[in-house]
């Protein structure tokens, strides 16, 4: 699904927190939003997800004006899990599905296996660590199969192994179902590994957008270059 962000603006007092216009997200691509703290990455994601009502936003999906979250899945950086088992948390992502309970449990287990959390399926979700919770929340959200999936720092709380599993899961779903992913990250190496395009933000605005390797290897914007200079990309 092709998404056009015609405008996304948020002003707090005299300060402009977000000011994005004419940003196009092509169907079936993975986008990484890079930038320093306070760049507006999370604010943009919350606006597209329809969570922050203070944002003046206009979206178009495949030529149609968009006003609800029916096509969009959003996972915040701080994952929320219900006080039940890990398995039941993921099953909740299948709301409205016609499958019987055993089939839903099987699908939930498979989703958990993709993020390395299948052995915790019967564990109380509230007993998990932050990184484990993040992986379960991702599994729950991705089984919804939304057309556009927004992820705010999806691997920030997990370890290297967990991050690798999450990255692999995102790439697999993108290839298999053509889901468009947009994720924020402070890690250019992660963007290089899985993103098709990079969007660099600073002070609420987009400074640079383009092919991931082109932007990361040869940034044209001074702030982008400054942000990337201390990273070794691989």
Descriptive account of the structure:
The chain is an alpha/beta fold and 234 residues long. It has one domain: P-loop containing nucleotide triphosphate hydrolases (Rossmann fold). Helix content is 34%, strand content 26%. The chain contains 8 helices and 10 strands. The protein has a 6-stranded mixed sheet with strand order 6-7-8-3-9-10, with helices on both faces. The protein has a 4-stranded antiparallel sheet with strand order 2-1-4-5, with helices on one face. Strand 1 and strand 2 form a beta hairpin. The longest helix has 18 residues. The model has no long low-confidence stretch (mean pLDDT 91).
Relevant terms:
single chain, 234 residues, alpha/beta, Rossmann fold, four-stranded antiparallel beta sheet, 10 strands, 34% helix, globular
Task: Compose a concise summary of this entry.
The chain is α/β, with parallel strands linked by helices. It is built from 8 helices and 10 strands.
């Amino acid at each position: 699904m092709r998404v056009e962000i015609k405008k996304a603006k948020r002003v707090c007092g005299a300060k402009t927190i977000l000011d994005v216009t004419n940003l196009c997200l092509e169907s079936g691509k993975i986008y990484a939003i890079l930038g320093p703290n306070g760049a507006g990455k999370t604010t943009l994601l919350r606006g597209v997800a329809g969570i922050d009502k203070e944002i003046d936003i206009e979206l178009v999906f495949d030529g149609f004006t968009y006003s609800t979250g029916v096509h969009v899945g959003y996972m915040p950086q701080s994952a929320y899990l219900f006080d039940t088992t890990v398995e039941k948390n993921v099953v909740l992502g299948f709301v409205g599905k016609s499958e019987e309970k055993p089939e839903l449990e099987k699908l939930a287990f498979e989703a958990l296996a993709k993020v390395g959390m299948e052995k915790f399926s019967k564990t109380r979700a509230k007993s998990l660590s932050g990184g484990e919770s993040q992986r379960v929340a991702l599994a729950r959200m991705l089984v919804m199969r939304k057309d556009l999936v927004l992820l705010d720092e999806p691997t920030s709380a997990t370890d290297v192994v967990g991050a690798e599993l999450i990255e692999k899961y995102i790439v697999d779903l993108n290839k298999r179902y053509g889901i468009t992913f947009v994720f924020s990250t402070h890690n250019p190496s992660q963007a290089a590994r899985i993103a098709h395009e990079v969007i660099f933000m600073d002070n609420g605005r987009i400074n640079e957008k383009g092919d991931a390797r082109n932007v990361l290897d040869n940034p044209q914007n001074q702030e982008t270059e400054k942000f990337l200079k201390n990273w070794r990309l691989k």
